[in-house]
## 1
Amino acid sequence: MNNSANPTISIVAPVYNEEAILHELYRRIVATMDEQSDTWELVLINDGSRDRSYEVMQELHAQDDRVRIVNFSRNFGHQIAITAGADYASGDAIIIIDADLQDPPSLILDMVAKWREGYDVVYAIRKERKGESKFKLYTASAFYRVINRITGFAIPVDTGDFRLVDRKAMDALRKLREHHRFMRGLSVWVGFRQTGVEYVREERYAGETKYPISKMLRLALDGITSFSYFPLQIATYMGFVIAAISVIGILVTIALRLSGSQAFIGQASTLVMVLFLGGIQLISLGIIGEYLGRIYEEVKQRPLYIVDEATGFAEKPDRR
Ligand code: UDP
Ligand code: MG
């Protein structure tokens, strides 16, 4: 067993109600890491689990002190849990992996090999996804295409948060302390030498997804709003288009009246126009509200997360 305070490789896994998975996760990670010679630590973030996840983590830590635990005071969400893991990890390379074994730990060896070749960010590309609904596959692929279109910088299609990030890139990434975080986008934003390795995404080992539609939508909105003003500009574009249409409408109406036509008389056309414009105005206000809410969130400057207890770390991280 290795007690080194600064391992070469840190593996960070966010955990929310995964008691049925943690032993198997540990077993698979040990099996993988035993095949190579670098020292390592496994940083588990307990994101306010309501099941026995934390007890199981403590059992694992008692068995093997390479297992380290950050226990949140409540649920802060997946992206924040990853951030905390990155803050506490002390390795020269940090690997972010889902705890549910949908991301196969064996791929870590391929990522480390790329890192040794000199790459700073090695993301895992989902070549195939097992056991996911058609709906999830379709919405996920549409999302990456839309976000790349409107943000104008390329977040690799079909990647998740499963990736290796070199210490240098991670220190840059850790400087970004925004609340609505889209980690897979931010880790591209920081730059450095990036590459991908392909894998087949497995089904969940046990339990159910912790990402219902509502959380998926939130994440997608965070991804778009944190990288682009495009939704705000939509209102301007719509304004120009509608103004142009109304000028045409005025001219057409004058022409019709001069020619003695009775077209467009009555309330229906007025009502339709008022409702249409009202709808567009409300949507535009909503979009402004999304950005305003995010500004408000940042202005408050609350910490990203609150730690109840950290177990097994040699030193406190420099920033929390
Ligand atoms: N997770 C978390 N906090 C949350 C939701 C999820 O830490 O509020 C963890 C979860 O335990 C898992 C990872 O984030 O390790 C990915 O979640 P999940 O597998 O449910 O998402 P999916 O793979 O279905 O998109
Ligand atoms: Mg999963």
Note: The mean pLDDT is 87.
## 2
Amino acid sequence: MSILQILHYPDPRLRNVAAPVSTVDDDIRRLVDDMFDTMYDAPGIGLAATQVNVHRRLLVADVSDSRSEPVCLINPVIATSSGADQMEEGCLSLPGVFEAVERANYIEVQAQDQYGQPIELEADGLLAVCIQHEIDHLDGKLFVDYLSQLKRTRIRKKLEKIQKQSS
Ligand code: GNR
Ligand code: NI
């Protein structure tokens, strides 16, 4: 059980594209456990491996109020998506930044679970948004990429200033 360090924008490592997990072994399961600890501790509703500087395709999420519905997706692929909704998003890699982003409101995801078994998941609402946000991380994308250049530059400067003050 350990809390991992989360990378902060504009760290260039957040732009890495994660490689598939080839074998779901004990090392991966340990990483999944640590990612759940880190997500619940933060607290956040999701966490992608990219954010803890592991560039492999896996994510964890729990959008329940009771923090009792853990979801772990390894090598997730969105097979179907439909609809569109705007939602205010935040990100543990951009502390204090909240902006509206439009995404599909229904998705079907194919993945493997923490035992390497194939799973299919249907999601809507917050879970659908969260999974799309996490898969973006695995592709080196951040929610601020959907905003205007001007907004993104303002956010980057604000976060760089805070990081300078705290280092
Ligand atoms: O904790 C988080 N909250 C959140 C709110 C709206 C849309 C997406 C998210 S994900 C975020 C945690 C995080 O940064 N995951 O990558
Ligand atoms: Ni995020």
Note: The chain has a mean pLDDT of 97.
